[in-house]
Design brief:
Strand content: under 5%
Radius of gyration: 17 Å
Number of domains: 1
Helix content: over 70%
Order of helices and strands: HHH
Shape: elongated
Distance between the termini: 44 Å
Number of helices: 3
Amino acid sequence: MLYPQEVSEHINFEQFFHDNRRPFFGLMLLAMLMDVPEVLVKSRMGLRAVPTQYAALVVSVIVIAVIGLSTANRRTHLLLPFACLVVLCSYELLSAVRQIAAVN
């Protein structure tokens, strides 16, 4: 979606990205919105514990997706992958620390 299927010498990758950013960030938003009910159902059924950091993850990813959808600003789009990486790594790290602390 972010990389052309066929690459020619004259392709403008930045333009290709901006032409396809809405479907990409739209799918990111949709995936997160679909994940929330699934996690809640699994939690209520006792199939999955929900880390306390999950709410922050959901809000952060939704904000990143909405920003990606709503702006074509190049600088903003340069920061979004780093913001997403920080959010996801923080969530994983904090969730792992919580699980380790619960075992001890």
